[in-house]
Amino acid sequence: MATLQEIRAKLQQSSQQALSTGDNAIFPHWNIAEGTTTTVRFLPDGDTNNTFFWIERAMIKLPFAGVKGETNSKPTQVQVPCMEMWNETCPILTEVRPWFKDKSLEEMGRRYWKKKSYLFQGFVVDTKLSEDKTPENPIRRFIIGSQIFNIVKNALMDSEIEELPTDYVRGLDFRITKTSKGGYADYSTSTWARRERALSDLEQAALKQHGLFKLADFLPKKPGDVELKVIKEMFEASVDGEAFDMERWGQYFKPAGMGGSGSATGSTTVAAAPKARVDEASEDDLPFEPDPPKAQPKVTAPSAEPAESNDSSSRAADIIAMIRKRQQQ
Predict the structure, then answer these.
(1) What is the pLDDT of residues 237-246, one digit of tens each?
(2) Terminus-to-terminus CA distance in the chain, angstroms?
(3) Which domains does the chain have, with CATH numbers?
(4) How confident is residue 284, by pLDDT bands cut at 50, 70 and 90?
């Protein structure tokens, strides 16, 4: 009979394998050269219960001062899934939302707000990007940021589009065009093709051979009660400016380069992830738009007391004290 330690090790190994399929299916459109266009053809979700041909991912980055116990440890980030991905209350956003009512806390609120991305699948019809290795299955997955997603979504409301762009016969290709703006990659000139195109014989053969992915299978693992408790602890420690504690949290979440991803999600260190590389476990380098709630004007009565300091460390201490006080109630 296996020991408890062996069982835990096997479960953790299975979770890590589930996170990284090793199929190299993600197409890194962010690596295309500036001034070039890649044409793709989006396909439906393999899950027929999904109304859309995409699925939303929402992750929260927790910054830490470093890793506890390591000398010369660099600042690191750990990604955790936001529970709003499963239409449930997110403990971090519950704490963060009130911060936007106070202008002195708004910047910190944005730091801990969820980052959205959208998972699609489809064919790469034409591209100048050279890949070291392409998968046997030509049906690729695409991690799309908000800028491209809004172009995709808004065009669907165009009355001139009569069929779903994913239709096998009367669908439309999508052209991802990369330019730059203000020193950052810009995809605002991406657009749908104007003419319908039926899938080629090779594309239809690939669909018959490989079938469609169920996009939900590639969402991060949903945190259970234990993982949610760990997420809360890490959030408090992050706000308080502490280092990441491998002994306390490493079984569940890990920064990149610390022995693989934790069981619930992939993570990344600030220095470890080069700007040209993104994989399924980490989307840190994509141009996500946090889209947090807007701060509301706050009217305060005159006070004879001295104004509070806006020093970030002071704000962090106040916030963490508020969190802990609320938990004790």
Answers:
(1) 999 999 999 9
(2) 44
(3) 22-269 (3.90.198.10)
(4) very low
